[in-house]
């Protein structure tokens, strides 16, 4: 409904009700926060004039507010810092929903009939069960036991929506979010400002939320289970035992650096996984953590995972849709700022194409266009009724 869309776009822009009220006031449109809230709750219906000004202020075409059949999102929960505000959470969900909705539209246009292939959810009875479910998820996607070069690429290729949050909040208040679209399409949101290994772990963690049914667990225990799933999914137990050995009395911290380069799991997570699998003892793990702190590696590890884990599917589809004239440059840039830059050089502008035609053909075309516009405006009073712009709101 119109009100749902107004709220979604406002939140996606990171604006409060008062922010919008203040912006509209500068345009000569007076409305209270309560009045705008009534619109968002579908308790009152805004006029077309109001929607036109609101759309322009928020940077969207008016038609966006009138679209039907919006997808339904069921969010599971955030992987975030405790200091993340409710306002920021709402912003992340609304922004992600808007981008995911656009991606689904492009999917239907460019890849009709394509189905999502996602592992079936299971109830874990123990952490050992989590290890088994993680292995089965890898088997479902035919990943074998080797390292996964790009987990994001794998997830997108099997129909999962992976969306980035572009915010640059201090100290990474937000890491990840997951849920379902229309109860059938999995979606994960990751922070674009995080390093590749963190994006990778977050995505694996969010896949864990969707694959593990943890209704019988507390929120804290569910997080433990999803952490274990992520580590197991990225580095199966047999692989780590082969890399480090069955049981180590002494281990060098930098061994974890080389494993990070290979498997894309952070040094800290690899050390924790070695402890969980009892490759190293608790006392060894504690000593390694102290060493990491001593060298400042808990804040920034000495090596990076070089494979880019940011999603590419939306970008690729936008470029294709632009090249084929399915989407306008302004709409493309609204979804992904800068994606249409340079595209004009590869296409002939319609006005230039018209000027290349013979004079008589140009005259016929322009006369026909003028006749169409005249008929459209003469039949649709809403296009000529500007009293809506002076309505009381």
From TrEMBL:
The UniProt record lists the HTH cro/C1-type domain at 6-65
Query: By its UniProt entry, which PROSITE patterns does this protein fall under?
Result: HTH_CROC1
Matching SMART domains = HTH_XRE
The stretch of residues making up the signal peptide is: none
| CDD domains on file | HTH_XRE
Q: What highest taxon heads this organism's lineage? A: Bacteria
Please give the family membership noted in the entry. Answer: Belongs to the short-chain fatty acyl-CoA assimilation regulator (ScfR) family.
Name-wise, this protein is XRE family transcriptional regulator
Q: Which organism is it from?
A: Novipirellula rosea
């Amino acid at each position: 409904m119109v009100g749902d869309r107004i709220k979604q776009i406002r939140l996606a822009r990171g604006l409060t009700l008062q922010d919008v009220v203040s912006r509209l006031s500068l345009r000569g449109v007076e409305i209270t926060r309560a009045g705008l809230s009534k619109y968002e709750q579908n308790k009152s219906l805004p006029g077309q004039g109001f929607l036109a000004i609101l759309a322009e202020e928020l940077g969207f075409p008016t038609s966006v507010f009138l679209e039907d059949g919006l997808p339904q999102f069921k969010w599971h929960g955030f992987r975030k810092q405790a200091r993340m505000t409710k306002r920021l959470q709402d912003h992340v969900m609304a922004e992600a929903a808007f981008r995911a909705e656009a991606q689904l539209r492009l999917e239907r246009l460019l890849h009709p009939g394509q189905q999502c292939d996602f592992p079936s959810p299971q109830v874990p009875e123990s952490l050992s069960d989590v290890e088994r479910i993680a292995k089965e998820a890898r088997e479902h996607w035919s990943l074998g036991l080797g390292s996964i070069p790009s987990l994001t690429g794998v997830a997108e290729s099997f129909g999962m929506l992976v969306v980035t949050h572009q915010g640059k909040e201090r100290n990474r208040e937000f890491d990840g979010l997951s849920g379902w679209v229309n109860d059938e399409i999995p979606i994960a949101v990751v922070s674009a400002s995080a390093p590749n290994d963190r994006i990778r772990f977050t995505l694996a963690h969010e896949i864990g939320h969707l694959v593990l049914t943890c209704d019988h667990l507390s929120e804290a225990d569910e997080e433990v289970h999803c952490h274990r799933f992520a580590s197991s999914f990225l580095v199966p137990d047999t692989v780590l035992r082969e890399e480090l050995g069955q049981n180590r009395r002494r281990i060098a911290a930098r061994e974890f650096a080389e494993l990070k380069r290979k498997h894309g799991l952070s040094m800290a997570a690899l050390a924790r996984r070695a402890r969980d699998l009892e490759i190293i003892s608790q006392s060894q793990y504690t000593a390694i953590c102290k060493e990491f702190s001593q060298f400042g590696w808990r804040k920034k590890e000495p090596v990076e995972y070089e494979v880019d884990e940011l999603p590419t599917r939306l970008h690729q589809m936008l470029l294709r849709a632009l090249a084929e004239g399915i989407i306008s440059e302004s709409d493309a840039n609204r979804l992904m700022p800068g994606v249409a830059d340079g595209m004009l050089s590869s296409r002939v502008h319609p006005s230039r194409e018209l000027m290349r035609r013979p004079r008589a053909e140009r005259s016929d075309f322009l006369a026909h266009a003028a006749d169409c516009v005249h008929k459209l405006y003469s039949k649709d009073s809403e296009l000529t009724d500007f009293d809506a712009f002076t309505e009381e709101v």
